[in-house]
Automatic annotation (TrEMBL):
Keywords: Ligase
Pfam families reported for this sequence: DFP (PF04127)
Chain ranges of the DNA/pantothenate metabolism flavoprotein C-terminal domain: 4-213
The name this protein goes by in its record: Phosphopantothenoylcysteine decarboxylase/phosphopantothenate--cysteine ligase
Species name: Glycocaulis alkaliphilus
InterPro entries according to UniProt: CoaB-like_sf, DNA/pantothenate-metab_flavo_C
GO MF, any single term: ligase activity
GO biological process per UniProt: coenzyme A biosynthetic process
Length: 220
C-alpha cells in the first residue's frame, strides 16, 4: 500500500465576538498533535488542520492553521481526498451571529443579548460525503460520564449521530482536557477496546497503531 493520506483536526476553534474577545474551550491540541506525530512516524502523509494552540507542530505533518470552525471545515474539505479523517479538534459548537468590527462597550446591552448560531458539524459532514468519503472516519468524544458503561453508551450514541466508523471516547471529568494524561475507549459498531490511563503520547501511539491496522485491512 502506498502511504495513506490522513487528515487530522486538532486544538480548539476560536469564534470572535469582537476584535479582542472570542468564544472557545480548553483544548490544548496535545492529543491531536501526538496522534499526527504517531501516524507520520508510521509513514502516513498527514495533514494536520489545527486551531490556535501553543505547542510545537509535529515533525513530518503538513500543518494548516485555522481560527474558526468555518475555516476548519473549509481547510478539511480542501485537503480531501484522504484515506482517513480523524476529528480530534474541540470544535466550538456555537459562534456569535455577528462579529463586531469594533470593541463592544460594556455599558451597552450588547453582551446580554449576544446571539449565537450553530457551527457546522465537520465530522458529520465528512462522514456523510458520498463521493469523497474517506475509508475510515474517526471522531473523538469528550464526555463527563459517571463510569465506563455510561461513557460507552454516550460514545455509541455519538457514533450513530455522526455516521462515523469509530469514536474514541474520553472522560473529561478530571483534567483530561488540557492535561498530559488521558484514558480512552475505542468504540466501533461491533466492539469496544479500552486503552488504560497513560500519557497522551502513549495513547496516541496505540491509537496510531489501531488506525494503521484498520487502513491495512480491507474495510466494508
Ligand atoms: N465535531 C465536529 N464539528 C462540530 C462539533 C464536533 O467535527 N461542530 C467533532 C469533534 O471534532 C469530535 C466529535 O465531533 O470528533 C465529537 O465532538 P463533541 O464535542 O464530543 O460532540 P458534539 O457532537 O459537539 O456533542 P456535545 O458537545 O453536545 O457532546
Ligand atoms: Ca461539542
Amino acid at each position: 500500500m502506498s502511504a495513506p493520506h490522513i487528515i487530522i483536526t486538532a486544538g480548539p476553534t476560536i469564534e470572535p465576538i469582537d476584535p479582542v474577545r472570542f468564544l472557545s474551550n480548553h483544548s490544548s491540541g496535545r492529543q491531536g498533535y501526538a496522534l499526527a506525530a504517531a501516524l507520520a512516524a508510521h509513514g502516513a502523509r498527514v495533514t494536520l488542520v489545527s486551531g490556535p494552540v501553543s505547542i510545537e507542530p509535529p515533525a513530518g505533518a503538513e500543518l494548516v492553521k485555522v481560527q474558526t470552525a468555518l475555516e476548519m471545515r473549509d481547510a478539511v474539505m480542501a485537503a480531501l481526498p484522504a484515506d482517513a479523517y480523524i476529528g480530534v479538534a474541540a470544535v466550538a459548537d456555537w459562534r456569535p451571529a455577528t462579529r463586531h468590527a469594533s470593541k463592544m462597550k460594556t455599558d451597552k446591552a450588547g453582551f446580554a443579548s449576544l446571539q449565537l448560531v450553530e457551527n457546522p458539524d465537520i465530522l458529520r459532514e465528512v462522514s456523510g460525503l458520498t463521493d469523497r468519503r474517506p475509508r475510515l472516519v474517526v471522531g473523538f468524544a469528550a464526555e463527563t460520564a459517571s463510569d465506563g458503561g455510561a461513557l460507552e453508551a454516550l460514545a455509541r450514541a455519538k457514533l450513530e449521530r455522526k455516521g462515523c466508523d469509530l469514536i474514541i471516547a474520553n472522560d473529561v471529568s478530571g483534567d483530561a482536557m488540557g492535561g498530559a494524561e488521558n484514558s480512552v475507549l475505542i468504540v466501533s459498531r461491533d466492539e469496544v477496546k479500552p486503552i488504560a490511563r497513560a500519557h497522551k503520547d502513549v495513547i496516541a501511539a496505540k491509537l496510531g497503531d489501531s488506525v494503521m491496522a484498520l487502513l491495512r485491512a480491507p474495510l466494508r
